[in-house]
Specification:
The structure holds two protein chains of two kinds. By secondary structure, chain A is mostly beta strands. Chain A contains no helices and eleven strands. Classes of the chains: A mainly beta, B mainly beta.
Chain lengths: ~110, ~110
């Protein structure tokens, strides 16, 4: 089965600093890599995604980079704000329509 | 407006008593998924429907079954809930072919 390692498991940053979360995977056939944000007691929400034909994608303060050769992809959040505090999950598509999630990173932004 | 709606938000059932969770969508998406999420863990896919085609994950217990009577609705049936089945159950939908999944708010299931 697919193996997705997500690091770090917890991350604390000062407000305004950047946060980086990295995921590595083993299935070279994966072509779709979304990131989800989940606040306590709420649904996972897609914040950004990237496909294998693109190396980087940016949406305001959030960016994702993908290195297919090295089989890793990373989430970058700049100018962090307290409302960015949540659990972030990387995911990748392992087969037709199937998502496999990473283990999650609990991000705390300290005001 | 909520596009993936799960009912109820909270469900309490007794050990061994069958329970059904429901999910409906207004997005007209082909694919509907059921995930189980335990505390401090990632969502784990139980199964999904691509239109009417049912796809079960290999490690999903036989205790869990699903029905999709039409495009809009999907149900999760737990035939004989055990204490280990207490979790958040999330429904999601997507278009086919590497498309974003949209999640409902989930149903938190407790077993007495």
């Amino acid at each position: 089965g697919e193996n997705v390692e997500q690091h770090p498991s917890t991350l604390s940053v000062q407000e305004g600093d950047s946060a980086v979360i990295k995921c590595t995977y083993s299935d070279s056939a994966s072509n779709y890599f979304p990131w989800y944000k989940q606040e306590l007691g709420k649904r996972p929400q897609l914040i950004i995604d990237i496909r294998s034909n693109v190396g980087e994608k940016k949406d305001q303060r959030i960016a994702v980079t993908l290195n297919k050769t090295a089989k890793h992809f990373s989430l970058h959040i700049t100018e962090t704000q307290p409302e960015d505090s949540a659990v972030y999950f990387c995911a990748l598509e392992t087969g037709a329509n199937n998502l496999f999630f990473g283990t999650g990173t609990r991000l705390t932004v300290i005001p | 407006d909520a596009m993936v709606i799960q009912n109820p938000r909270y469900q309490v059932t007794q050990f061994g008593k069958p329970v059904t969770l429901s999910c409906s969508q207004t997005l007209n998406h082909n694919v509907m998924y059921w995930y189980q999420q335990k505390s401090s863990q990632a969502p784990k896919l139980l199964f999904h429907y691509y239109d009417k085609d049912f796809n079960n994950e290999a490690d999903t217990p036989d205790n869990f079954q699903s029905r999709r009577p039409n495009t809009s609705f999907c149900f999760l049936d737990i035939r004989s809930p055990g204490l280990g089945d207490a979790a958040m159950y999330l429904c999601a939908t997507s278009r086919a072919g590497s498309q974003p999944q949209h999640f409902g708010d989930g149903t938190r299931l407790s077993i007495l």
